[in-house]
Write a structure and sequence with these properties.
- With 288 residues, the protein is mainly alpha-helical.
- It has 13 helices and no strands.
- 71% of the residues lie in helices and 0% in strands.
- The longest helix is centred in the middle third of the chain and has 23 residues.
């Protein structure tokens, strides 16, 4: 492996470790070739997300997202000069990574830039599959599976579960940024508006808000029940990686379900020792 390629992978691993901390607990359980490839996928996804979440004008965000789309379409033939595309181009040469899934991730980010709202859960499901199910399917290209169709559906479902968890965890931060992901039909059902007061607190009656958030958490838990069926389909280390990543998010979701209003006042997270414990437990649980 060339020095340039080594440095490209090292950059991807650093981006993943710093900016996708919850996932890094699982990724470090993989053998080096898979760890490097998955880091390249996550670092690329992070670059796409960063454009969507950045402070540029909407038109410039979309221009840059389409530029990344074009660059990814040229892989592995033209790896470009950026570390993430250099590493990803190499990974694609060695593993059956479905690069077309990045198109869906970019579509989801474009929806964010356009401030799309979601009327029904079916609408939100499209978004979740774009921004998270896609990453699950990309990851599966690194993990490998005998029954790829079944595994892809399960990876997609697990991605939906993770994204629903993110949406609940970030409900206040997203609202402050002008975004509402929860379906309008659910808000109507529970009599909730998600309007904010001048201090960025929700104006909805706490009992209604708690009922809505608990309803969404229970829905997300059902998606974990489906998505975690992926584990027996994977090899030992890939299953441990997935169990660690999903385990951290599922524990986070369980906390939100137990105290839904916590997400309205602070960012709910697990302490680092608990995340490490989940990762160790995942590795031990898939050691034979």
């Amino acid at each position: 492996m060339s020095v340039e390629l080594d440095e490209a992978y090292a950059t991807c691993e650093s981006i993943t470790r710093v900016q996708a901390a919850n996932f890094s607990y699982g990724i470090r359980l993989l053998p080096p070739p898979k760890r490097k490839a998955l880091s390249a996928i996550y670092a690329t996804a992070r670059c796409i997300d960063d454009i969507g979440d950045g402070r540029l004008a909407a038109a410039e965000k979309i221009r840059r997202l389409e530029s990344i789309r074009s660059a990814l379409h040229a892989l592995p033939r033209e790896p470009g000069e950026r570390p993430v595309t250099i590493a990803l181009a190499d990974a694609v040469l060695h593993m059956p990574i479905p690069l077309e899934a990045f198109d869906e991730l970019i579509d989801g980010c474009v929806a964010d830039v356009q401030e799309r709202s979601y009327q029904s859960f079916g609408d939100l499901l499209w978004y979740c599959r774009c921004v998270a199910g896609s990453v699950g399917r990309l990851s599966l290209g690194v993990f490998g599976a005998d029954d790829l169709d079944r595994a892809s559906n399960l990876a997609d479902a697990l991605g939906v579960a993770l994204q629903l968890t993110n949406i609940l965890r970030d409900v206040r931060e997203d609202r402050e940024n002008g975004r509402i992901y929860l379906p309008a039909e659910d808000l109507d059902r529970f009599g909730v508006t998600l309007d904010l007061d001048p201090d960025s607190g929700f104006t909805d009656p706490p009992d209604r808000l708690a009922a809505l958030l608990r309803f969404e958490a229970e829905r997300a838990l059902r998606w974990y029940d489906v998505g975690l069926r992926l584990l027996p389909v994977l090899d030992r280390r890939s299953a441990a990686c997935t169990a660690a990543m999903a385990g951290i998010y599922r524990r986070l979701l369980t906390r939100i379900e137990a105290d839904p209003l916590a997400v309205t006042t602070r960012r709910v997270s697990l302490p680092k020792p608990e995340k490490a414990w989940v990762a160790v437990r995942a590795l031990v649980g898939h050691s034979h």
